[in-house]
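In this section we walk through a basic example: taking a raw amino acid sequence and producing a predicted 3D structure, encoded as discrete structure tokens. The instruction is simple. Fold the sequence below.
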Amino acid sequence: LERQAGELERLDAEAEGYRAQTRELVASLQQVQQELQVTLAETKRLQEREDAFEGEVLRMSDRSAELAGHNNHKQKIRHLAAVKAENHTLRQELKKAKQLSAQLEGQLRYANLLG
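The resulting token sequence is shown next.
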């Protein structure tokens, strides 16, 4: 009986040791879960900042490209003047071609009347 009582005390102490380990593990697990929640929140915040920065970089890149297109204003003016001059020349050539066409049509009609 004494031996059984000693065995019971040993088993009780062992069970109490397991309970203490379980409490420590639960506490540790809760701490890790809290740290995980904090880390997830921080990760989400950083991802949102990264997305915002990427959007800002794209906007800045677009704006930079837009501004770069306006850097050489004199060159644009020269190009526009060249296009206008070419347009004027082409209009004159078209006018001459129409006059020649009308002249040739008149000659063709005259030739057909004589023919």
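Looking at the output, two observations stand out. The chain has a mean pLDDT of 87. The first helix runs from residue 2 to 68. In the next section we compare this with other chains.
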